[in-house]
C-alpha cells in the first residue's frame, strides 16, 4: 500500500524488505522544494529503523528522477526572504542527503529519468546507483548561470575522472544512463523496462547479508577515501571491533557454517544468517 508524506511530495511502499521511496512531484519533474526536503527527511526518519525495511531504494514518479533544486521555491522565493531562510533551506536539503549518506540500511538510487544539478546530492548519498539507459544526467547549473553547488561539484570529482568532471561541469551537456555508467556516476544502466527488476534483484541479495557488517562496510568505504593507508588500517580495526559489539555471533556463525558444516562457501555467496538466530 502506497503511503504519502505529510505534504504528499514523497511516496513510498514497503515490499519484501525493500522501502521503495519516490520523489512525488512528477508535474514539476521532482525538483526539490523546501517542502519536499522536509518531507523526505520525515520519511527517512520513519523508515530507518523499521524492522521490515532492510534496503531503501530512491526513485522518482513520472519522467524524472529529480530535476535538481526547485529554481522557484528553493532559490528565488527563499532568497527573497533573506539569509536566514536561505541557510535554513540549505540545511534542510543538505541535511537529508547527509542522513542518506550515513543511513543505517543500504541505499540504492534507481534513476528512472532526468537527474540534474542538486540531484547529484542524493545520487551520491545512495550507496549504489542504477540508471535507465534512457535517463539523462546533467550539471545544468552552468546553463542558468551558477556553479554546481550543493555538493554537486564534489560529487562530480568524487565519481568521475578529472577531465570528464571538468567537461561535464563546464559544458552543461547531458549524458544518458549508459554513459553515466561508463563514467562512474552509476553502477549499471538497463533499459527502463528492466530497471526495477534488476534493482530488486540487487536489493534481495543485500537483504541476505549480515546487516551489521553491511553498515560497517558502507561507512568504511566512504570514510577511508580521504585517509592515509595507516589511518585507514587503524580505523578498520576499530570499526570491526565496534561492529562486533553489536553482532559478535554473526561472523562466528559465518565461519562455523563454512569450516564445520561445509554448507556454503564465502567466496561464492553469503552464510545463512537467519539460521544463526535459531
Ligand atoms: N525548478 C523549478 N521548476 C522546475 C524545475 C526546476 N528545477 N524543473 C522543472 N520544473 C517545472 C517547470 O517549470 C514546469 O512547470 P510548469 O508546468 O508550472 O510550467 C514543470 O516543472 C515541467 O517542466 P518542463 O520543463 O515543462 O518539462 P520537460 O519534461 O519538457 O523538461 C527538464 C524537463 C528537466 C529538461 C526541464 O524541466 C529542465 O530543464 N528543468 C531544470 C533542470 C535544472 O537545470 N535543474 C538544476 C537545478 S540546480
TrEMBL record:
Residue intervals passing through the bilayer: none
GO biological process, one term: isoprenoid catabolic process
Entry's Gene Ontology molecular function annotations: catalytic activity
Pfam families: ECH_1
Domain of life according to the entry: Bacteria
UniProt xrefs under SUPFAM superfamilies: ClpP/crotonase
Signal peptide coordinates: none
Coiled coil location: none
InterPro entries (alphabetical): ClpP/crotonase-like_dom_sf, Enoyl-CoA_hydra/iso, Enoyl-CoA_Hydratase/Isomerase
Family: Belongs to the enoyl-CoA hydratase/isomerase family.
UniProt protein name: Crotonase
Organism from which the protein derives: Sphingomonas metalli
